[in-house]
Amino acid sequence: MFIPVEKLKKYALAFGVELDNTALERFDTYGRLLAEWNGKINLTAITDPDGIALKHFADSLSVLKYCEIPQGASLIDVGTGAGFPGLALLIARPDIRLTLLDSTKKKLTVIEDILKNIGLEAVLLHSRAEEAGQNRQYREKFDFATARAVANLRELAEYCLPFVKQGGSFISMKAAKAGEELSGAEKAISALGGKTERTHKFELFEAGERNIIIIKKISPTNGKYPRPSAKIAKNPLE
User: Fold this and answer.
1) What is the DSSP string of 115-178?
2) Which of 23, 62, 99, 142 has the most neighbouring CB atoms within 10 Å?
3) Is 149 exposed, middle or buried (0-12, 13-18, 19+ CB in 10 A)?
4) What digits encode the pLDDT tens for the residues 191-219?
5) What's the whole-model pTM score?
6) For residues 211 and 63, what is the distance between their CA atoms, to the nearest angstrom?
7) Alpha-carbon distance 49 to 28, whole Å?
8) What would the mean pLDDT of 60-85 be, rounded to a whole number?
């Protein structure tokens, strides 16, 4: 085994997630391929087996403790990178209808290889989030959108909420000081049709503080959002 699967199993159980042998084997293959690919493409600074198990896999699985995802729900992982949290969630919950979005084609090539090796399927979407968010094929089509520390929450909400259908949720995963980001993002969240439902602050074992912010989509997003990325960066919603 490449990763410490018994540790991962224990981490997962702490979040109420039971991983069977098939899931643990898939996580092990995922970890091994992630480390191998990282030698060719810069995917993550965390490449040691223990770090991958805790800071990538367990961190991703924490979503399942704090957000109830119904059977067969549709989920888009925005700026998925090396597949976190989306691909890790799919291993634990193969019933999820998963779309993995990233603007870097090479990263999606890696995920495609991992999916093939673990025997799971997902839609891979090579696009910038602000462009896909204006595409009728993807706009307001998902029960959930996830993003893990991709940008400041104020900008992230504009990238992610347009994907979420009314009644669905945007799940933002943050490290420390998430409260400061949230207070500065509330007006933007409201303007985009969202409302902060709840926040969960917890310790990711020895890895330190983590925060999960769940934003409910209560009304459709105005068609002018998301704006081009340059406008989002220069004039964030306030």
Assistant:
1) HHHHT---EEEES-HHHHTT-TTTTT-EEEEEEESSS-HHHHHHHHGGGEEEEEEEEEEE-TTH
2) 142
3) middle
4) 999 999 999 999 999 999 999 999 999 99
5) 0.97
6) 10
7) 9
8) 98
How far apart are the C-alpha atoms of 52 and 32, rounded to whole Å? Answer: 10
For residue 183 the two structure tokens come to 């207070």
* Placement of tokens 């949720």 in the chain: 169
Rounded to the nearest 10 degrees, the angle between the axes of helix 105-118 and helix 21-38 is 150
pLDDT, residue 99, reads: 98
Q: Check: CB of residue 11 under 8 Å from CB of residue 53.
A: yes
Both tokens assigned to 181: 């980001």
pLDDT for 150: 73
Structure tokens at 209: 């503080």
Q: How far is CA 218 from the centre of its chain?
A: 21
Residue 43 CB-density burial (10 A; 0-12 exposed, 13-18 middle, 19+ buried) = buried
Pick from 118, 117, 55, 122: which is nearest to 86 by CA? Answer: 122
Which two tokens mark 150? 């991709």
> Measuring CA to CA, how many Å separate 76 from each of 43, 132, 145, 189?
19, 11, 5, 18
Summarised one tens digit per residue, pLDDT across range 97-138 is 999 999 999 999 999 999 999 999 999 999 999 999 999 999
202, 118 Cβ separation under 8 angstroms: no
Within 10 angstroms of residue 24's Cβ, the number of other Cβ atoms is 18
Amino acid, res. 160:
C
Residue 147 has pLDDT above 90, yes or no: yes
Give the position of tokens 């992630």.
34
